[in-house]
Amino acid sequence: MKRLFLSVSTFLIFFLSLSASTNANSVNLKRSARLFIEKYCYSEFTGIQERFGIVKYSPKRKEIEEDIDPDFGGMVIDWEIDPIYVVSSYKILDVKVSENSAVATVRYKCLAKSEGTDYYYRIYKSKCDSNFIVQFNLTFDGNRWWAIDPPPALISKKSLIIYYEGDLSSYPQQLLPHQERGYNKMLEGLDFLRRLNCK
């Protein structure tokens, strides 16, 4: 009976330590998932265009991205061509973790979106929505989190204005004929962003 008691006690200690370890791992995973989505949203919001090392595409999405952009395959956001959302703020509402995957829910204050993938015909359209909910699917590979098939980039109005102003300032004072159309398109976009206001 004594030997049995020791065996049961040993099992209970092992089980409790395993449960504690599992709970600790779950907490750490949730924290790391939260930290990942915080960094992801902040980098996009403030104008980081690269998605290398943070995004993975499913085979179907990868094919679509490579068809649109053979050079970078969707890993670099081209603000003048790729569809984007113009936002003014965001708040991470929840991060639900289940084993090695997670879903992060983020609320944005959306101001506008771009439509079209052709540089010269792509336009901005107002989209005022103070409760614009976006969900991000995440996966953990054992070392780090990744965003899987993320939505179009959500960029702050301020970051876009800075980008447009910088790009326009790089044009020479005397435009060459082939530069005029692109310059005027940039002016059009900057004017829209400066006037954009959702109450």
Summarize the structure.
The protein has 199 residues and is α/β, with parallel strands linked by helices. The chain is built from four helices and six strands.
What do these coordinates show?
The protein is globular. The chain starts with a helix and ends with a helix. The model is unreliable at 1-24 (pLDDT under 50). The protein contains four helices and six strands. Helix 3 (157-169) packs antiparallel against helix 4 (177-195). Strand 3 and strand 4 (123-140) form a beta hairpin. It has helices at 2-45, 59-68, 157-169, 177-195; strands at residues 55-56, 84-98, 101-115, 123-140, 145-148, 153-156. The chain has one domain (2-195). It is of the alpha/beta class.
**What oligomeric state is this?**
single chain
Number of helices: 4
Main β-sheet description: 6 strands, mixed
Query: What gap, in angstroms, lies between the N and C termini?
Result: 76 Å
Instruction: Let me know the average pLDDT.
Output: 85
How many whole angstroms does the radius of gyration measure?
A: 23 Å
Please give the order of strands in the largest beta sheet: 1-5-4-3-2-6
What is the share of helical residues?
Answer: 40-55%
The total domain count is: 1
Structural class: alpha/beta
Order of helices and strands: HEHEEEEEHH
Mass-distribution shape: globular
Number of strands: 6
Report low-confidence residues grouped into runs of 5 or more: 1-24
The percentage of residues in β strands lies in: 25-35%
Features of the shown structure:
29% strand, 199 residues, 4 helices, alpha/beta, disordered N terminus
